Amino acid sequence: TSVDEVSKTARDFKLHQLVIETILEGGERPLIMDFDEYSFIVLQPVTSIVGDPEFDELYVVLSKKWVITFHKNSLREMEDLRKAIASGSKAAAQGPDFLFYSILSRTLESYYALSDGFETKLETLEEVVSQPSTEPVLGRMMAVRRNVLTTRRVLSYTREVVATMLREDFYDLNDEDERYYRDAHFQLSHLLESVETNREFLSDLRDSYMSAVSLSLNEVVKKL
After folding, report:
1. Is 30 exposed, middle or buried (0-12, 13-18, 19+ CB in 10 A)?
2. Are 196 and 152 in contact (CB under 8 A)?
3. For the chain, does the N or the C end have fewer beta carbons within 10 angstroms?
4. Which residues of 96-134 are buried (b: 16+ CB within 10 A; e: fewer)?
């Protein structure tokens, strides 16, 4: 989305200046802000799980009549949704709230792929630590830990967004749509538990590695 496109859309739909500035400046965490006629939401879908995970920014303006999305880069979630709508998906026929849920659910799918990737990396690290090796793994552990903490932060903020939408004093969801959002909240809680388990396992693995290094150093000192 270019600056001109954002400005024109903002004028056409009378978007608040704060919304425009947030979209143009970028760098926001997942959040939700309430305005008179709409809500402004920021999501961070995963764009790459190779190496260090990369998160992009997806801005959504959600009203009871329409949904507007802004993103600087091409996002697989939005491309998949467009294809689904073109093929007759119910996402386009059940109103704006369900359409936004369709965007949210596709974002959650990227988080599941990321969580599975962490488990694979931890299994590999465990194998390296459990066997005699000269390969330095502490740096790899710290890199995975950094990525796990970043992911936990994104998941936590995203769950706050969904929890806020489930509050009756903030957003008015009908009973059918509320079921979907409660399921999204459950999935985010499950993902957070999984990532937290990864973090704890990584801490235990690091302690085991440091103990093994210390023991090996003691044996060397004894020989000397």
Report:
1. buried
2. yes
3. C
4. bbbbbbbbbbbbbebbeebbebbeebbeebbeebeeeee
